[in-house]
Amino acid sequence: TAGITQAPTSQILAAGRSMTLRCTQDMRHNAMYWYRQDLGLGLRLIHYSNTAGTTGKGEVPDGYSVSRANTDDFPLTLASAVPSQTSVYFCASSEDGSNQPQHFGDGTRLSIL
Amino acid sequence: GQNIDQPTEMTATEGAIVQINCTYQTSGFNGLFWYQQHAGEAPTFLSYNVLDGLEEKGRFSSFLSRSKGYSYLLLKELQMKDSASYLCAPLDSNYQLIWGAGTKLIIKP
Q: Which of A75, A77, A86, B77 is 20 to 30 A from B66 (CA-CA)?
């Protein structure tokens, strides 16, 4: 079925190491998003992309980078992981960056030790 | 600043009706979404309101009052599978979703 695929499902990472979380969608959606979800807090936007070739910073971009080389893929990179980046990361997409509903991947549970 | 306020947890009985309230303050407003999130799973879209009033979709309805900065999600004929967190998320002037922490709904038999 069509949708968003995230990989890996979970990961334990040593502090200081780098890591790329993968996100691929096959719905030909223009807009894609990366969120982190922490207990007791709402989803917080890390980075977004309204169309291939463009990216923007969200609420909590520090320590993360993204690229959008094509429509389908939107990887999130942690250059040098820190324990405060322990979280559940969700990738989402929508038809465009307006008022269309966002569809979410199953998430990546990341622990930084 | 931008702020979303919804109850942390609610309990209801199977077969009953429950109303989950959400108040919001955002920089501009382009509608409001409700999502459902089961424990350990991804959020899934439930409803979108941009005009004042009630939108009904099966057992679920969502209401919006823009002048009051207020919305609610109404769940009827509650089923055990409705046990989940319900996330209120208004869309600000930049078309960014501002997410509440969610209301955990516990359904008891």
A: B77
